[in-house]
Amino acid sequence: MKISLEWLRDYIDLNISPEEIGDILSDLGFPLEEMISFGDDTVLDIEVTSNRGDCLSYIGVARELSVATGSPLKLPEVSLKELDSEVGRHLAVNINETDLCKRYTASYIEGIEVGPSPEWMVRRLEASGLRSVNNVVDATNYAMLECGQPPHAFDYDKLSGDTINVRKAISGEKLTSIDHTVCELKPDMLVIADEENPVAIAGVMGGFETEVSQTTTKILLEEAFFDPVSVRTTARRLGLGSEASFRFERNIDIRSIEWASRRCAQLIIMAAGGAAAKGIADSCSELEEIPEITLRPERLTQILGFDVPEKKVFSILEDLGFNPQSDKKSGAVKCKSPTWRNDITREIDLIEEIARVYGYDKIPVEDKITIRAAKADPRQTCMQQVGAYLNGCGYYETLGITFTDPQTAKLFTGRSKKEYMAVKDVSRKNSNLLRQTLSGSLAEVMKNNKNFGNAGCKFYEIADTYELEGSRLNEKTKLAMTAEADIRELRGIVEGLVRRYSKTASVQVRPSSVCWADPAGEVLIDSESVGICGRLSKSVCDKIGLKDSRPAMLEIDFDKIYSLMGEQFKVARLQKFPSVERDISLIVSEELRWLDIERVVEANAPEQLEKFDYIDTYRGKPIPSGKKSLTMQFVFRDDDGTLTHEQVDKFEKPLIDALTNNFDAELRTS
């Protein structure tokens, strides 16, 4: 914000140089970006953070300097030339959307003469970065810069009827703004309307049809409080930005609106003549009571690292308008935020206020500092280990966007957007749903790489997902993988990952139904369901534009992997005697699952069976149609001696018999 020092001295006496003023403001948290000479005046361009909307005004900046220098703040005395009539004879206010407009005031002024502004007003506005328009518009801009409350002046004779309605736009309504932009209004946009049409976009910009012109003699003066989110959303959607919307977006002082309205009316009458009707049409929702904030002296010392004298604490808080009161019983300080400081709600906010006014330069500096090395976070360590393992398996990590669009959401979960948590940010009006699965993001990555001609792609992602359970948001970390490979490869990778952390945990996949996959399976670790896997169905591939490929995908709860991390491994002695391996091939029905074979082997396994693994599946001649050949490997070992082939035959025969009898299988010999 640009601050004219000539203008600033109307509100505070400062007998210090511009450089010193700039230094003070910088120390208070308003960095000086530039110092400019403007004729006989000096202009300071300072940065104002988004939480300090109160300092987007000369009075707000003067108030800060008053606290720092001790020089008293001087506020303008407001007195108006008034008509004999009451304001109610000329206008009325009706608020339909009290959630979006908590207060709206309107004043009536007549007898004005529109023309050039006084030289002093033009000079000060131009020094502050605003061009002169006419005396009425300039007076409203002057009032906005002075107190931070944006007013708007309507040509009263151009309004239809005498009632102002604060309502939402009706579908199909349009408004031409004062900068000649034709705005197509949406039903969720707040507008100011007369008895027929919208005449302004609330908090953003007025309408061209009712703007003040050379023929204007009567004015309806608006001062209001509009919801910051509503103003920001509407301004961005319409591509309209203004000094007014910039301030409304950062909150204004709702309790000082009446004073600001009277002050603006005074400036208009000073610049353009006329007189105001008695009183103000004021429609206001019930204002919430300002909550009390407790400051503990010991907490102040703990946070700052040094003691601030008690008298100084009270002096700073008093100067800032917090009206501090000592609680003799607890020793705490009770405060209430001033009406212009809506950003102060917690004890830590008060501590920050004391620190910046007392001076950050008073924080003691030690000759040595001690840095304590923190232990590595186990969860983060696990993520890094899992990532390194998957990299070793040839998989590349992707970093997906947390949001998804309704079409992808429906495709990969079968749920409508009503079953998702969504954000209202208009920049994400298409992809505004918090994703409940990582599969959609990985499918998009796979499609993009295929389109660029990258073959044999393998990707993974570890990220949070968000599921709605009633009104509660359940956040889960998931691990997802996709590859142009068989589902068994993904299962094998999960088995290897589980083996890194547990030698006893088992991984199983059983047939299931998944909306995006065909075939599909449910992934279990130690008989607990932890996720799903499958091959993208042709219909899903067609809908997302993935051509000539049906990649396999798997998604499991990362927390299950993490829970295995702390398992203690038992160290066994090296085996003295060699193992014996036997590979067999069985011709079985195409529908037979590997899980069923595992169960039969486990039920009939002798104690000498050390290991049992899947090797391969074969289809084709001479295997009959509807059949497949499964090759598996048995590994036998005896702790008491070397096994002979005759002994192994005895161990193997019951297993083969059990498999052939249970599944009507045939032992393949060639």
UniProtKB/TrEMBL annotation:
Mg(2+) binds at D343, D349, E352, E353. Its cofactor is Mg(2+). Binds 2 magnesium ions per tetramer. PROSITE patterns: B5, FDX_ACB. Its EC number is 6.1.1.20. Residues 575-668 form the FDX-ACB domain. It is found in: Cytoplasm. InterPro entries: aa-tRNA-synth_II/BPL/LPL, B3/B4_tRNA-bd, DNA-bd_dom_put_sf, Fdx_antiC-bd, Fdx_antiC-bd_sf, Phe-tRNA-ligase_IIc_bsu, Phe-tRNA-ligase_IIc_bsu_bact, Phe-tRNA_synthase-like_B3/B4. One of its GO terms (molecular function) is RNA binding. Signal peptide: none annotated. Pfam families: B3_4, B5, FDX-ACB, tRNA_synthFbeta. The keyword Nucleotide-binding applies. One of its GO terms (biological process) is phenylalanyl-tRNA aminoacylation. The keyword RNA-binding does not apply. It comes from the Bacteria. Keywords: Aminoacyl-tRNA synthetase, ATP-binding, Cytoplasm, Ligase, Magnesium, Metal-binding, Nucleotide-binding, Protein biosynthesis. It catalyses: tRNA(Phe) + L-phenylalanine + ATP = L-phenylalanyl-tRNA(Phe) + AMP + diphosphate + H(+). Residues 288-365 form the B5 domain. GO terms for cellular component: phenylalanine-tRNA ligase complex. Belongs to the phenylalanyl-tRNA synthetase beta subunit family. Type 1 subfamily. Tetramer of two alpha and two beta subunits. HAMAP family: Phe_tRNA_synth_beta1 (MF_00283). This is Phenylalanine--tRNA ligase beta subunit. The gene is pheT.
